[in-house]
Amino acid sequence: MNNSSSETTVMPDDQGTSLWQDAWIKLSKNRLALFGLAVLVTLILVSLLTPLIAPYGYEEQNLDMGATAPSLQHWLGTDIFGRDMLTRIMYGGRVSLMVGFIATAVALVIGILWGATAGFFGGRLDAVMMRIVDVLYALPFMIFIILLMVVFGRNILLLFLAIGAVEWLTMARIVRSQVMSLRNQEFVEAAHSLGLSQWTIIRRHIIPNTLGPVIVYTTLTIPSVMLLEAFLSFLGLGIQPPESSWGLLINYGVETMEEFPWLLIFPGIALSLTLFALNFLGDGLRDALDPRTSKD
Amino acid sequence: MTYLSTNWSLYRGKLATELGLKLFLALVFVGLTGCGSGESNVSAGNKNGTLYWGNGTEPQTLDPQIATGVPESHIISAVMEGLVLKNRKTLEPIPGVAESWDISADGTVYTFKLRDNARWSNGDTHTAHDYAWSWWRALQPALGNLYAYMLFPIKNARQYYEGDISDFSEVGVKALDDRTLQVTLSFPTPYFLQLLDHYSTYPVHKETIEKFGDADQRGTRWTYEGNLVGNGPFQLVDWKINRRIVVEGNPHYWDANNVSLNKIVFIPIENIVTEERMFRAKQLHVTSSLPADKISVYRAAKDPELRIAPYLGTYYYRLNVRKPQLKDPRVRRALAMSVDRQRLVDNITKGGQIPAYAMTPPGTMGYYPESDLTFDPEGAKRLLAEAGYPNGEGFPSTEILYNTNEGHRKVAVALQDMWKKHLNIDIRLLNQEWKVYLDTESAGQYEISRAGWIGDYVDPNNFLDLFLCNGGNNRTGWCNEEYDRLILDVAPSMSSLKERLEVFQKAENMLLDDMPIIPIYTYTSVQLVNSAVKNLDPNIMNSPAYKDIYLQADK
What we know:
The complex is a heterodimer.
Chain A: H1 3-10, H2 12-15, H3 19-28, H4 31-53, H5 85-121, H6 123-138, H7 141-152, H8 156-183, H9 186-193, H10 198-234, H11 246-255, H12 262-289
Helix pairs in contact in A: 3-12, 4-5, 4-12, 5-6, 5-8, 5-10, 5-11, 5-12, 6-8, 7-8, 8-10, 9-10, 10-11, 10-12, 11-12
Chain B: H1 18-32, H2 41-48, E1 50-54, H3 70-79, E2 84-86, E3 93-95, E4 98-103, E5 109-114, H4 128-138, H5 157-161, E6 173-177, E7 180-184, H6 192-195, H7 206-212, E8 234-240, E9 244-249, E10 263-267, H8 272-280, H9 292-300, E11 306-319, H10 329-337, H11 341-349, E12 354-355, H12 377-386, E13 398-403, H13 406-423, E14 427-432, H14 434-442, E15 448-454, H15 461-464, H16 481-493, H17 497-514, E16 517-528, E17 533-534, E18 550-551
Parallel strand pairs in B: 1-10, 13-14, 13-15
Antiparallel strand pairs in B: 2-3, 4-5, 5-7, 6-7, 8-9, 9-10, 11-15, 11-16, 12-16, 17-18
Helix pairs in contact in B: 10-12, 16-17
């Protein structure tokens, strides 16, 4: 009668832990990764709440207060137009984080699906799919983005998608090579012999095993995407003043770093902090999610 | 004229990761400045007579009858020369290729006597016929010469350009013999000699042009390295796109013995921040400009290398009157009235610029334009309401077009906010690379665009004739026949300077009533000049006389 309940209490280890539970346990032991996670969550929360908590308006100019050093009134100083830097950095973070996450998510989805399919099925399908990737690689991506912007107009969401659409190629290659090496391993053959469908095998067995390199690559993609956005904005293709992003703030800050160092330092800190957090978290996640690391 | 471009983009087609690299390099650069390993351009140049000149942007072309920019004008004035030159301080005309000239008593017939030893850089003799042919070329409509009007004071030149006359012999340019050129004007033109030192009136080498295409064909290879034949103190020897243009002494130049420099290296650095760093690292003798935020630093240090001088130029915004929301002069006036120029020059441009309330810079030939334009946000609001946009409601989103440049961006961002604050209208910004920007503007595909006009000669006419109906540099779509009549017919016929200036004032008032443009400030030229550079005297046109410059390092 209470057999089943007593069994679970007596032998909890036999229940096993799912990949995700296991990962969480391992992750929670990794202090750096937890720190990274905490920083990221804070940044995301601040970004979400920015319109409510920002001390000033991001486009509010006061030319008479141009380029003042940090003070009680303006904690991080003001830029040359007298706009509050703290506010600008908070609003800039919204754009930077959004472009980082959305564009990377787009790249991830396309890249993983494409790479896993090509790698798993191999043969002619693989050849065709990877040649498509090669052709896209050969296209100068700037021209591609500029074309998209010219045809569809300058729209911030489109910018995110466009960046994502050119960033998935490397992801597809990484995933494909992982899948190729996994495809002939015993556990996949076992799954085959159990009669699982191809799609289930890709989803349940192949993709989780590729997560390590994918996550590492993702943490590298997010910062490069943020910088790419700054670059496009500078060329007049991305976001336009008075809006801003960290990349742009840094870009402008560099020009006056000797006269007004705070215009460079604070956005620089914000961006570096994000990148550190992403890297720590990425490292931790890789260790935590890789099923091949021992479950001690 | 000439647009001041100083246009730069930080990245030219490379990956975003360059941002980090740049930051790193910038830091390294700062660390290295002063340590100096190896010989710098400046000290090497001082020894072997090579001037390193920061030239702002890559020239669009070196064809004097097509070019329209300040960077172009520097190189062209080194490799070519007109009938007259300018005194490097006072800008008075002095003999150039013409050793002397006579002006008829009524001021309409100029007879130039050319030098016997005038030669082209390939050794060909240089005659009066070269001028007749060059000016014939300049007036070919197919060439698309935006400066064709510089020759319009010449009798029948305008009629020929506009196709009313097809026989060029009716135009008032005649080579009486190899050494004598006679020019007949339609009416006395006090500034005519000044025009002859503008590059659009320079002679071009017929054989070279015809070798590479038709005379009125644009963009042929005749101006390329190895092809270009000029008559100036220097000749083109090396042109690496976006890297450098090198000119070397021309042995056939009539005054070659008095040219001191052996070489000039023009370096196009669009990023003025980089340019300033290169100057400090002694890679350049002269910069094209200086970032606004650095001016106060140099000023505070009383650095003698900082040069700020009045500059005959107006920074203004064009309003495209063909766009529906800008059709109403009241809207245009409201925009102009809500620009706080004094705050802008004090806090953003910082180079001692003078707020401008009229198109012509004050003091041009003794002309001080009067203007009833002021900074009046309340009045502007009322005007905008009268035009049907109370408190900015319903005003369509409007775009400011500017060429990619940090300085222009700052002004645009400040104006964007002023218009938002005072008129409650939404303005977007769009930046384009210099050549694209010029095309967009010429095609009229903009709403508001940044512009700057640097005088080609010292006369109000040079600023006011921009806005003639057919003016190649008007580009606003504004056209007023009465205005055209004043500038083209009435002003030139005035016998005294005073009367002439009164006519200009009348025309200027029409322009300001209708406001197809928003004057913003009168330029100053701000640049860094190494102390070794001698005879580069400041003048209101900021035009260097390269043949006079010499280098002498301080002991």
